[in-house]
Design brief:
Elements: H1 2-16, H2 22-47, H3 51-63, H4 71-88, H5 98-113, H6 120-129, H7 132-142, H8 147-176, H9 181-187, H10 192-198, H11 205-213, H12 215-225, H13 232-249, H14 252-269, H15 273-295, H16 298-301, H17 307-322, H18 333-338, H19 340-345, H20 360-368, H21 370-390, H22 393-408, H23 415-430, H24 432-436, E1 447-450, H25 460-470, E2 474-477, E3 486-490, H26 499-510, E4 514-519, H27 530-543, E5 546-549, H28 554-561, H29 566-569, E6 572-574, E7 598-603, H30 612-622, E8 627-632, H31 638-648, E9 654-657, H32 666-671, E10 675-677, H33 689-696, E11 700-704, H34 707-710, E12 719-721, H35 726-744, H36 750-765, H37 768-775
Parallel strand pairs: 1-2, 1-3, 3-4, 4-5, 5-6, 7-8, 7-10, 8-9, 10-11, 11-12
Helix pairs in contact: 1-2, 1-8, 2-3, 3-4, 3-8, 4-7, 5-21, 7-23, 8-9, 8-12, 8-13, 11-13, 11-14, 12-13, 12-14, 13-15, 14-22, 17-20, 20-21, 21-22, 22-23, 25-37, 30-35, 33-36
């Protein structure tokens, strides 16, 4: 708690420093920096025996967001670090990483550029500016920080970023409101971006935004990856303040980076849904603020469409075309931009003298040609590969940020840019083992990755996740499948023929992840190649640790598929399909139901394999005046919806509602009918979630004899039939509708009593307790 107290004192001092005259301001600044020094001391104490290394690196962290006047201090600190590590590590041998050789090669291209440069003074400056490319790999190759101190430095970085943001925002606020004439003069009629460029604690908007925005992934990492190393308030400050400063300074690179970093954070830590629910709201507010700040003021809007950068890139492309192999030499961008003859040939009216082309890729190509850009791209792709392979969130965020930054500005041109890039690059690479591992727990928690984790509008997946929680198994999205103990595959057979599916299964097998295949259908509904689908399903059955079925007739399907292979049949575990009682809301009281009018209903996504056109034809051909059919659900494509409307246009008793059905609409739809009609195709259909849903809300069904209905011993609870071909299907469906009409005519509400018996059945046989009980056998 001491470090948080000192941090609070530092912020308060910064606040008070902007509320008094110059003398009091200076005294409070001394108190501010004394407090920061005390914070360093606390840091050193917590770092224990590694305090020299940790404090020295903390100095570098604090220097990162400082003004260009601190360049010499940064290089001095790096030199001091080198000496410290040589002393305390007793001249430990360098543990060079292969990727550091690439960094060194990028640096030594500056020397190659000397061979054909036109200005040796500029080349010498470039070699000096890029010196951290050599110093930092050597430095971090010698330092061996503990995991405790790696996390400590990351926390210290967050505190430094928050202090810089608070200080800068308060300085600007006081200057704008005229509290200090000596500070207001700094503005000189400029906006916030210009103020930050002249303030002593800050620097170029692009560099400032990149440095501060690194706090976003660090804060998410410390909060959710390492077991809540920081509080929620610290995380929110570390996320919102850098975003606010970035938007206010008008850094285009920062605006491009923000959604990328937030998106990566969401992908890695999306299981923390409540936090991100409010994060989306905050993100929407930020987008609105961004529109106000960037799209309305003309002077800021020009920053995003300025002609200067367009002209610069035109010059760069022409220069690359002239000397594509070895380039023009080190730091030859300015002479090329200033060349009047070249500008005239390219149709550039006004020459704007700039030191570079505001694009790392173009600058590298112009200076050193194809050789250098190949090395740079290889460095980027290799680092991305390492980050993805190791699931290194911080390294992935860092590289994504700089890959974008390289396009918007030359963030490797000056020493302060290079120091920031190389510090994080080396720090994250060298300490990767500590940064990718999660906190160990005393007892291993069984995890299961589920395909179709979110489930869309179908609540089935959520019910199965609830059942997993009840037996102590943690559910994860399928993209965490290679980190989980089990991978539970639902409707995975739909991916038959896709290479990604086979690759995923192979990786699971290599990593020893147990695969659970949940069989829902005989074959995928929309398959065009039945042989390919059956072959893939057979492969799934062979490699699965367990096979979950929701109806006992599924066993016959698997037996036929796998040619009665006993080893496969032993994997089968029956788990009842969960009921939906109360899931979509409370069951509604019956309304608009007339004893003298039979109301049939089809409910669900309207697709061709569900035989909706067959149902319409059957009702139309019967022509009963007291039978009404309502169809609810989204119908795609539009041509199919149009054909259904044409089919039913002569029958006023058929009502179509082709729209998305919300969860809270389900009870009302089912309450307005006597029974649900589900004329599914028995060639592919096996289980019927819609049947369980109808039963759960007190309605019986009329359907072909699916596996779900076969399991129910009391066949009086529903109306079922069998058929051999489409024509026979229609005739059997018509017979059933006519039979129901004859049996319940002028007393159709008796069907509601039958529906209540159906509800009692699924409440007993398909309860969450029954599902959880059977699932235990799957995860043993």
């Amino acid at each position: 708690m001491l470090h948080r107290l000192l941090f609070a004192v530092a912020v308060i001092c910064s606040l008070l420093a902007h509320s008094f005259n110059v003398i009091v301001y200076m005294l409070l600044q001394i108190l501010l920096f004394t407090t920061i020094f005390a914070l360093f001391c606390v840091l050193a104490k917590q770092a224990r025996e590694q305090y020299p290394a940790v404090v020295a690196l903390a100095v570098l962290i604090v220097i990162l967001p400082l003004n260009r006047s601190f360049n010499e201090l940064g290089m001095s600190a790096t030199t001091v670090l080198m000496v410290i590590f040589f002393i305390f590590n007793k001249f430990r041998k360098f543990t060079w990483k292969p990727i550091f050789y690439i960094i060194a090669s990028v640096y030594f291209l500056n020397f190659v550029g000397l061979l054909h440069t036109g200005d040796f003074s500029l080349s010498g400056k470039a070699i000096d500016s890029a010196l951290p490319m050599i110093l930092f790999p050597v430095l971090f190759s010698m330092v061996q920080l503990s995991k405790r101190n790696v996390l400590l430095l990351l926390r210290f970085f967050l505190w430094a970023v928050i202090v810089v943001c608070v200080y800068g925002l308060l300085s600007y606020a006081m200057a704008v409101y005229g509290e200090f004439s000596w500070k207001a003069a700094l503005l000189d009629g400029k906006r916030y971006a210009r103020f930050f460029m002249v303030e002593p604690l800050t620097w170029h908007p692009s560099a400032l935004s990149i440095t501060l925005l690194m706090a976003l992934p660090v804060s998410f990492y410390l909060r959710y990856h390492t077991g809540k190393q920081i509080t929620l308030i610290e995380m929110l400050l570390a996320v919102l303040l850098p975003i606010l400063v970035t938007l206010m300074v008008g850094a285009r690179v920062g605006v491009a980076i923000i959604p990328v970093l937030l998106g990566l954070s969401y992908l890695f830590y999306c299981k923390f849904k409540p936090v991100f629910k409010w994060g989306i709201v905050a993100g929407g507010a930020m987008v609105g603020l961004c529109l106000i700040l960037f799209l309305l003021p003309a002077d800021i809007r020009e920053r995003y469409t300025d002609q200067i950068r367009i002209d610069q890139r035109t010059v760069a492309i022409s220069a690359i075309q002239e000397k594509p192999i070895f380039g023009w030499g080190t730091l030859q961008q300015r002479p090329l931009i200033a060349c009047e003859e070249r500008a005239q040939n390219l149709g550039i009216e006004t020459i704007h003298i700039q030191p570079h082309f505001h694009n790392v890729y173009l600058d590298m190509m112009v200076q050193f040609g194809i050789v250098d850009i190949v090395a740079l791209l290889f460095l980027i792709f290799w680092t991305f590969k390492i980050a993805i392979h190791r699931k290194h969130f911080l390294l992935l965020s860092f590289m994504a940020m700089y890959t974008i930054a390289f396009y918007f500005d030359n963030v490797l041109q000056s020493q302060r840019f290079v120091v920031a890039f190389m510090f994080w690059f080396c720090f994250l690479l060298v300490n990767w083992k500590y940064l990718v591992e999660r906190p160990t727990t005393k007892e291993h928690e069984t995890t299961c990755a589920i395909s179709r984790y979110w489930g869309g509008k179908n609540q089935y997946t959520q019910l199965m996740k609830n059942a997993l929680t009840a037996i102590g198994v943690k559910s994860l999205p399928i993209w965490f499948g290679l980190q989980a103990d089990f991978a539970w595959l639902h409707w995975f057979e739909n991916k038959a023929g896709k290479k990604t599916a086979y690759r995923f299964l192979d990786k699971c097998e290599k990593k020893g992840i147990k695969i659970i295949w949940n069989v829902h259908n005989k074959i995928p509904h929309k398959t065009e190649n039945q042989n390919s689908a059956k072959s893939f399903m057979k492969h799934l059955a062979e490699i699965s640790n367990k096979i979950v079925i929701h109806s006992t007739p599924t066993t016959e399907v698997i037996e036929e598929l796998c040619e009665s292979n006993e080893s496969i049949l032993k994997k089968i575990v029956y788990v009842p399909h969960p009921n939906y009682i109360g899931v979509y809301g409370f069951q509604k009281t019956n309304y608009n139901l007339d004893n003298n009018r039979l109301k049939l209903c089809f409910f669900g996504a309207v697709k061709k394999y569900k035989n909706v056109e067959l149902l319409i034809s059957a009702v139309t051909e019967l022509g009963f005046d007291d039978v009404e059919l309502s169809i609810y659900g989204r119908c795609r494509p539009r041509e199919y919806a149009k054909s259904l409307r044409l089919l039913a246009e002569k029958n006023s008793s058929i009502k179509m509602h082709f729209r998305f059905v919300r969860d809270n609409d389900v009870p009302e739809i089912l309450a307005a009918c006597h029974l649900l009609v589900l004329p599914y195709n028995l060639d592919s259909s096996l289980n019927s979630g819609a049947t369980i849903l109808a039963f759960s809300y007190g309605r019986t069904v009329l359907s072909p004899l699916t596996g779900t209905l076969e399991d129910i011993k009391d066949k009086s609870l529903f109306f079922a039939y069998s058929y051999n071909n489409p024509d026979e299907h229609k005739e059997e469906l018509k017979k059933q509708i006519a039979a129901i009409r004859d049996k319940y005519k002028e007393n159709y509400n008796e069907l509601l009593k039958l529906g209540e018996k159906c509800k009692d059945y699924v409440a007993e046989h398909n309860s969450s307790e029954q599902v959880s009980k059977q699932l235990k056998a799957v995860f043993q």
